[in-house]
Fold:
Amino acid sequence: MTTDSFTDQIAAEDLEARRAAVESIRPLKYLRDEIARLEADKKPHDEKLRTWLIEHEGAHLPDGEAELEAFMQDGGTSIGYDTPAEIKKVNPRLYEQLELLGCFEVNHRMVAELQKQHQLEASEIERFRHKIGRSPTLQIKSIKE
Structure:
């Protein structure tokens, strides 16, 4: 196989992949629109059912005709801890150990709230601020928009 024929083969494969990608735009847009429509149709039914089941805690609501049953499943629990200030007050040695291990997180919501309350100056924290990347999301919009 010569270099030219190899290059041509790569170009042909890329063209085919592009065609296949283009052919996916319309069906994906249709499916996303259909999902949005179905979500809107689902919402009032979801709200009625949730409201009834919450008002009747622990109940199972059968639909004998459809042989279905609705109920609220326990969401489970997660683990939480006291605030760093509370840990420091009760056990300063543990607080120091956790701090050295980098266990305390500074987040944007907390910093913004402290700045709003004038408890923290932007100039003090700015050098420690950075953007965290996010995965890109595929968007499909009408060209006419």
Notes: Helices lie at 3-55, 84-90, 92-100, 108-116, 122-125. Residues 3-63 form one domain. The chain has five helices and two strands. The chain has a mean pLDDT of 86.
